[in-house]
Amino acid sequence: MDCETPCPKYEQAMQVLGKKWTCLILRCLLAEPKRFTEISGYIDGLSDRLLSQRLQELEEEGIVQRQVFARRPVLVEYSLTPKGQAFRKVAEAIQDWANDWATEPATV
């Protein structure tokens, strides 16, 4: 990796992935499509407002897709697009690094 000049593609990726909660949202969606409340329940401390904002941003980036099922009550599911599924390698690399180097958070 070259550190002499910044890479615009890397910068763009970090502007998307570097936002708080984004990587956890993507990790949550790696296994299967989820409803809003399932994602919200997976991540402690994430407000519904911010989750909605992050999902919208990820949808605009072509990473997440939103599917609405016309039934009563209406069912909305979020899933990863192929671009989002490609995040799996990144998530696995981060998990490997965390397993080797991260410490367990202190419990209160």
Description:
It is a single chain. The chain has 108 residues and is mainly alpha-helical. The protein has one domain: Orthogonal Bundle (Arc Repressor Mutant, subunit A), CATH 1.10.10.10. Helices cover 53% and strands 11% of the residues. It has six helices and two strands; from the N terminus they run ααααββαα. It has a two-stranded antiparallel sheet. A hairpin with a 5-residue loop joins strand 1 (64-69) and strand 2 (75-80). The radius of gyration is 16 Å and the shape is globular.
Note the topology.
Elements (H helix, E strand, L loop, with lengths): L7 H10 L4 H8 L6 H7 L5 H13 L3 E6 L5 E6 L1 H4 L1 H15 L7
Antiparallel strand pairs: 1-2
Number of beta-strand segments: 2
Report the principal-axis shape: globular
What percentage of the residues does DSSP assign to strands (E)?
Answer: 5-15%
The structure class reads: mainly alpha
Q: Can you tell me the CATH class? A: Mainly Alpha
CATH superfamily: Winged helix-like DNA-binding domain superfamily/Winged helix DNA-binding domain
What is the correct CATH architecture? Orthogonal Bundle
Radius of gyration: 16 Å
Task: Name the helix and strand elements from N-terminus to C-terminus, one letter apiece.
Answer: HHHHEEHH
| Rounded mean pLDDT score | 94
Report the helical percentage: 40-55%
The DSSP helix count reads 6
Name its key features.
108 residues; mainly alpha; Arc Repressor Mutant, subunit A; two-stranded antiparallel ribbon; 6 helices; 2 strands; globular
Write a short abstract of this structure.
This protein has 108 residues and is mostly helical. It has helices at 8-17, 22-29, 36-42, 48-60, 82-85, 87-101, and strands at residues 64-69, 75-80. A hairpin with a 5-residue loop joins strand 1 and strand 2.
